[in-house]
């Protein structure tokens, strides 16, 4: 019965099989890391089938996967992923940051993709074991970390468009430095309604691989216009949604004359970022200015710039943490966003508070030791 499968699956998830690599790759220089190009010695794989449920997790030497050419992940993008990090603190302990939020978001994405459910706590324990096995790969640096990439694929060998009866969940690890090759410097954005990242009723609030693959073409067009990222707009009123692969924040004096930190609401179009949530919670805890989840349009931004009401704009995400914006190309006009130095005051303060927690310099229940 389904209940028996769930019970057996849970027991199997508790019983991880560990096969250690016989040889170990050299560790890279943490100062020269390019995002997502170097991988650790081990990986986690867990298979699932409708008949038998979840199989035992395997931590094994890093290597290629063997999948059927007809599987649904390759043909119909029945696939999703997550992104989280492990950090080494000055006490040499390795920590994860708010990782249960990632697990719950991954479960939500799995439901939307018609992939099987899993126990968030059990999967997180498997990931913790993997990080523990490869803990020497966590950089000894306060500007680098170990990126964790859980991925979930439909693997049933059929060309039928349907819910898969076989799946594979795997996790790989990659030591990373700054997400952007130029480091923590302000980015320029191309804002155009020509391309849409997400729409109501779609999968924009889930971390599906297809969401990102479909964005690459627009990213290259942004570069052709002399910008580094895309500012995704939505609707006839050109609502501001996300920037590149990041959530977006506007720090300004709003229409009512209030000092406000604003970000678009989670209405099904916006990805519920862990860093986004953390920034909102930190700023509300400070209680120094209004903190809002509200709709913002390009007309709102343009008028605020004309009236000198904009203080800062920045993106947020696991990979970049906080990334300031200094210019937006919109309808042939360069809109210049105030940006003091490479990291303006609020973005700098948020970055410091978040990274101090992530690296264990500030005690917090957001951070847990591996």
TrEMBL record:
UniProt EC number: 2.6.1.42
One Pfam family recorded for the sequence: Aminotran_4
Location of N6-(pyridoxal phosphate)lysine modifications: 207
GO molecular function: branched-chain-amino-acid transaminase activity
Subcellular localization, as worded in the UniProt entry: Cytoplasm
An annotated GO BP: L-leucine biosynthetic process
Keywords noted in UniProt: Amino-acid biosynthesis, Aminotransferase, Branched-chain amino acid biosynthesis, Cytoplasm, Lipid metabolism, Pyridoxal phosphate, Transferase
One CC-aspect GO term: mitochondrion
Reaction equations catalysed: L-isoleucine + 2-oxoglutarate = (S)-3-methyl-2-oxopentanoate + L-glutamate; L-valine + 2-oxoglutarate = 3-methyl-2-oxobutanoate + L-glutamate; L-leucine + 2-oxoglutarate = 4-methyl-2-oxopentanoate + L-glutamate
CC cofactor: pyridoxal 5'-phosphate
Domain of life: Eukaryota
Gene3D superfamilies: 3.30.470.10, D-amino Acid Aminotransferase, subunit A, domain 2
PANTHER family: BRANCHED-CHAIN-AMINO-ACID AMINOTRANSFERASE, CYTOSOLIC, SUBGROUP IIII AMINOTRANSFERASE
Main function: Catalyzes the first reaction in the catabolism of the essential branched chain amino acids leucine, isoleucine, and valine.
NCBIfam families: ilvE_II, PRK13357.1
Family as reported in the entry's similarity comment: Belongs to the class-IV pyridoxal-phosphate-dependent aminotransferase family.
Complexes and interactors: Homodimer.
Name of this chain's protein: Branched-chain-amino-acid aminotransferase
């Amino acid at each position: 019965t389904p209940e028996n499968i769930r019970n057996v699956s849970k027991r199997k998830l508790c019983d991880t099989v560990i096969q250690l690599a016989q040889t170990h790759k050299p560790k890279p220089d943490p100062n020269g890391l390019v995002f997502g190009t170097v991988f650790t010695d081990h990986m986690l794989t867990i298979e699932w089938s409708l008949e038998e449920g979840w199989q035992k997790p395997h931590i094994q030497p890093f290597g290629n996967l063997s999948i059927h050419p007809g599987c649904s992940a390759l043909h119909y993008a029945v696939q999703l992923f997550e992104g989280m990090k492990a950090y080494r603190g000055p006490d040499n302990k390795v920590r994860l940051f708010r990782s249960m939020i990632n697990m719950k978001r991954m479960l939500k994405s799995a439901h939307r993709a018609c992939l099987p459910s899993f126990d968030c706590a059990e999967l997180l324990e498997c990931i913790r074991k993997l990080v523990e096995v490869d803990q020497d790969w966590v950089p000894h640096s306060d500007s680098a970390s170990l990126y964790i990439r859980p991925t979930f694929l439909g693997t049933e060998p059929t060309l039928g468009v349907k819910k898969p009866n076989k799946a594979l969940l795997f996790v790989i690890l990659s030591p990373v430095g700054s997400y952007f090759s130029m480091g923590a410097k302000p980015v320029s954005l191309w804002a155009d309604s020509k391309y849409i990242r997400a729409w109501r009723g779609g999968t924009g609030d889930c971390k599906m691989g297809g969401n990102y693959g479909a964005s690459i073409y627009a990213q290259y067009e942004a570069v052709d216009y002399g910008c580094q990222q895309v500012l995704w707009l939505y609707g006839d009123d050109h609502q501001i949604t996300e920037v590149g692969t990041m959530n977006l924040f506007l720090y300004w004096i709003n229409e009512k004359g209030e000092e406000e930190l604003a970000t678009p609401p989670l209405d099904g179009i916006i990805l519920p970022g862990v860093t986004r949530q953390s920034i909102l919670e930190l700023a509300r805890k400070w209680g120094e200015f209004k903190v809002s989840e509200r709709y913002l349009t390009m007309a709102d931004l343009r008028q605020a710039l004309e009236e000198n009401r904009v203080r800062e704009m920045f993106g947020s995400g696991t990979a970049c943490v906080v990334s300031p914006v200094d210019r937006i190309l919109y309808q042939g006009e360069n809109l210049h966003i105030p940006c003091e130095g490479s990291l303006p005051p609020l973005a700098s303060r948020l970055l410091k508070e978040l990274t101090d927690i992530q690296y264990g310099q500030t005690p917090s229940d957001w951070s847990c030791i591996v």
